[in-house]
Amino acid sequence: MTNLQYRLIYNDMVHLDRLKKIRSLMHEQGIDAYIIPSSDPHISEYLPDRYKCIEWTSGFTGSAGTLIITHDFAGLWTDGRYFVQATEQLAGTGFELVKLRTQGSAEYAEWLGEKLHAGSCVAFDGNLASLLVAQSVNNTLQPLGFVINGHVDLLDPIWENRPELPQVKAFLLDEKTTGQSTESKIADVRKLLVKNRAESHFISSLDDIAWLLNIRGQDVPCNPVVLSFVYVSAEEVILFIAPDKLSAPDIDTLNKQGVKVATYNEAFSFIKSINTTSILIDPKRTCFAIYDSIPVVVNTIIEKTNPSTSLKAIKNETEIAHIRQTMVKDGVALTKFFKWLEESIHTEALSEISIAEKLEGFRAEQDGFVDISFNTIAGYLDHGALPHYHATPESNYTLKPEGLLLVDSGGQYKTGTTDITRVVSLGNISQEEQDDYTIVLKGTIEGSQAIYPVGSKGYQIDAITRRPIWATLRNYGHGTGHGIGFFLNVHEGPHVFNPTNVDIAIEEGMITSIEPGLYREGKHGIRIENLVLSKKYDSSIFGDFMDFETLTICYIDTDLVNKALLEKTHIDWLNNYNQWVFDQLSPQLTEVEAAWLAKKTQAI
Predict the structure, then answer these.
(1) In degrees rounded to 5, what are phi and psi of residue 237?
(2) Are residues 214 and 352 in the same domain?
(3) Could you identify which of 193, 277, 298, 348 might form a hypothetical disulfide with 198, taking C-beta atoms 3.0 to 4.6 angstroms apart as the criterion?
(4) Backbone angles phi, psi at 481, to 5 degrees
(5) Predicted confidence (pLDDT) per residue in 72-111, tens digit
(6) What are the φ/ψ torsions at residue 584 (nearest 5 degrees)?
(7) Are 304 and 360 contained in the same domain?
(8) From the CB of residue 119, how many other CB atoms can be counted at a distance below 10 Å?
């Protein structure tokens, strides 16, 4: 037996044992079903190690999913991005994959309603479930006579050596970087509270807090945020944060900006004793435990998106100027990486893991680099068909000078956040791969050069981007684009480009990805992603119109293009884009690197 086989068998036994212990506690406490969301008390997408509960319980490492455990079944409900990954990682663990029909929905609640009988007890840890999830469970199961208990933690008693919360220092950003002071941002939030007739506001989401107080940290992998809560009213602002997270000068700065500092754990007792007539909370970004702690003296609980979420989505001129500069740095790193890759594929032993590490190294050489913005997706051959693939020692492919390589990566710089996907040929490409690549490229181009009326929604941009792909009877199972933060989370709302009818207008100053794809399971995957800035375009008697400025600066490989499938407008866009990339990056490259890039950006 190889070391890999032994490790897989051992891991399966570990997860089977953990499942057995959970069921034992369920039996002792009279629980018929237990729900484990992928979340933390801040309803984060990316989690501190302490809250990686699904991974610890089942071995699944994806960033989205829900575990449901009954006495005779254990399943992971997740969406199409993770079907292949979940099937592989859950094998032998006692958990089965249940395929979600609609991404993000609580379909497991309906399943429990059919599986169990009236009087059954369904439990979850309210610190991990958002208010929205808790409401979905309650609204589905309580009418059927189920008992719902949202205050049960079955993991902590059996989780040996559970990681502690991170203790890394946080820091403040100055106004020269952010373009807006903390006092000004607080004033803007207070104006929106008045508009919503809310006396107070409790914020749990870490990126909203980071934006509001111009504070950053290292508590969550890839996201420069710090574990904290914030309370805002007309009279005061309180930051709840772990002792020693901030330096004395930073605390003094916050105090001068009108922000009191209390300990992290005080937030839970504070909310129980709050004395206000109305409070605004975001049901998607507030955990059930916080909501359930709000005292009855609070007559009105207003459930709306955090005001800061819409404010931070619109980047100011300072942030936009910084991100343009950051794109040059990121483009230099990517150029060096792809040149190295092309030259090394024939001379070195490369793998998905080793090239991801090499790319991070090139980014780390750039001024202001802090971290990667998410775990790099380096998908070779059929791994490219897994949209959220992340190589592990068990899955790691060795690269050869043939086939397609998909690299989806990004960086966190003190002057901005990047996210880019490119596909390159390592040699010996099939006609199908070339055609798929060209069809996806058409989608990227059409989305990027869209002109649209003021007030347009993300689903309209999604349809424009998909049009040339649909025309070939092809499609992809994820959204076309997501908002992105400024030295913040790589996934940021409230706007999104996807097929769902999200009633959020595209506004001037929003930064969004455009990333169509095609995935042939067992063969290859294509995705070509740039970040774009929405801006004013022009006006006519029919109204005001907007378009996009492409921000990402990295050549798009033309070796894979089937020119016969492109129209002149696509060819012109591609040639102009690649020439612009060369003009922007060549002054920052060595003579040899610039010569290499000149060949890559030649017009077709």
Answers:
(1) -130, 130
(2) no
(3) 193
(4) -165, 160
(5) 999 999 987 788 788 888 999 999 999 987 766 778 999 9
(6) -75, -35
(7) no
(8) 10
